C-alpha cells in the first residue's frame, strides 16, 4: 500500500483541515493541540515570545487581544475600501488599516516589535501549521498540496491564496473549489461512481456560502452552475448573535459593548473578546437545545457572576432569518442557472458547520420536499476529504476512473469601443479553457490596440472588475477595420487567467497585477450578479445605444478615409465634407445622445453617402 | 402580405430565428474555442482535456443540426388554404434553411478534423 505525497488542505475561514490518502483510504491528519478532532483553528496569535497557530492561539483571545488574528479568508485578495471589509470590523478584536497600496493589513506587536501582517501572511502561517501537522502524522514533510477555495472566489482571491501557499513553501498542483471537493468526496466515498445523476452541494461554512449544481456521469464530476457569497457564513450569524447578547446585556446592566468604536479602551476590547468567545458556545448549544444562558460575569468583570441572560433559539432564528433566506434565494438562483428545478436534484449534500442549524435544515426541507437532505458526509471534513482524493489522483496513487471538471463563476472578456463588454469566456464554462476572439481596428490608420480585461456579468463594463490592460503596437496603417488582432484568454485548471494578443505572427502575454486589481476595490461576484439581475433591462438598452454610437463612429471613419480617395467632383466633395464635419462634431459633443438621435444622424449620413456611392 | 401571415412561413421563420440562430452562435463559440486551443497556451495535458470536452460538444452540435433538419423536414408545405405562390415561397424558404444547416454541418466536420489533428499533434 502506498501513501500519496500530495496532501489535501481545506483552508477555511474558521477552521482548516488536512487529509491524505494512505493505505487505500483517506485519513484526516490529527492535530494533537486541537480539541476538535482533526480541525485546526485558522487563527494566529503574535505574542511577546512566541507565534501560536490554531487552538492555542484562540486561547489568547482575551490575554493577547489585538494581536490575535483570524477570519483572514474574508480579507484575502480584497481591498481595504471593500464594503464587506467595513461590515466585519465591528466585532473583530484586532485593528485593521490600509497599507500604501490600499490593501488591508493588521497592525500587531510581535516579539516586542510593532509591525503589520497581510491576510496572505496569516494564511501562510496557518498553512505552515497544516504542513507541520502532516509532517508529524506522516513522518515526512509534504511539499505539495491541493488546496480548496470557495467556488465564488474571484481571480484576485485565488491568486492571493496561491501566494499564501508559496509563502508557506507549498507547491499547489491544483486549486479546487470547496463544494466540488465535497461532491468528489461523496462520489468516491459512497461509491456512487456509476450512473448519471445531479447533486446540489449546499456549503454553508464559517465565512463563505457556496452552492453548486453538480452532474455526476459515471465518475465524471462536472460543475454545472455556481452560486454563493464569499461574505456569508457562520461569522455573520456570530455577529447577529453578538448584537443580540450585547443588547440583552445593555438592557440588564446598562453596559454597551457595541460602542466599541467610541470607547476603544483596553477593557472594552477585552470584554468584546470575551463576548465573541461566548457567542460560539451559544450558537452550538442552540443547534441542539431550545435555550441557553450566558453569565454576565463571564463577559464583564465588574458584573455579578450569578447574573445571567437567557438566549432562546427562536430569538437567534429571528435575528438571522435574513441570512438563512439569502442562502435559499441563492440556491434557487443557482438551480435556475443550471436550468433545473428542485425535483431534478437527486441528492442535496450538506457541507460546513452552519448546516447544523435547525432553521437552515427546515428551509432547505421546504425547498426540497421530496429529497432527503444528505448529512452522511462529515460537514467539517468533507472538503479536505475530497481534496485528498484529488491530490492522490494527481500523484497517481488512485487509478479510479473519476474526474473533476470545474467551472468559472464569472464571464471574462474585454471592452470594445463604447465600453461594451465583449464576452470571451462565458460564466459557468468548464475549465481548463482557451478562447480566441478577433478584433478589428476601429479608427483609420490606427497603429495600436489597447484591451482592458474584465471579469463580470453585465453587458457594459462600468461595473465589472478590471483585471489589467494589454496593448499591441506597430499595426500596419490602413482604413478602419482593415487590420485585426487575435485576443486569447485561457483559464488553467486552477481558474487562473492568462491573456495573449497576436498580430502578424507577434505574440504578447499579459501577467495580471492582482495588487492593482485590489487597489481598484474589486467587486464581489455576488454584488456583480445581483446588479446584473437588477439592471438587466437598462443595461440591454444602454448596450444597444453604445453599439449604435459605435456604428456612427465607424461610418464617420470610413467616410473620412474615402472622401479624398473617390472620384467626387469638387462641389460634391465640399458638400460631403460639410456633412461629415457637422455629424462628427455632433458625435463628439453628444456622448450621451439617445438611440433615436444617433439613428437619425446615421440616416442623414447614409442618405448623402448613397447619393455619392461613398460607403 | 400573405408571407407575413401564412402559418407555415411563420413556423419556418421561427426555426430560423430560434434553432438556426442558436446553432450559428454555437458554431462561432466552438470555433473560438478550437482557435484558442490551437494557440498552445495551455499545458499539453490541459489542452488534451479541453480537446476531449470540445469533441463531446461538437458531437452534441452535430446532433442538434440533425434535429434541426428533421424539424424542417417535418414542416407541412401542403396546407389547403395556401396559394400556389405561397407554397413556392415556403418551399424556397425551407430549401434555404436546409442549405444553411448543411453548411453548419460542413463547418462542424472541418472543426472536428482540426480538433482530431490537434489532438494527434499534442499526444505525439
Automatic annotation (TrEMBL), chain A:
Single GO BP term: response to stress
Keyword Nucleotide-binding: yes
InterPro entries: ATPase_NBD, Heat_shock_70_CS, HSP70_C_sf, HSP70_peptide-bd_sf, Hsp_70_fam
Matching Pfam families: HSP70
Domain of life of the native organism: Eukaryota
GO MF annotations, alphabetized: ATP binding; ATP-dependent protein folding chaperone
Keywords, sorted A to Z: ATP-binding, Nucleotide-binding
Residues in coiled coil: none
Family statement: Belongs to the heat shock protein 70 family.
PANTHER family per UniProt: HEAT SHOCK PROTEIN 70KDA
UniProt-recorded name of the protein: Heat shock protein 70
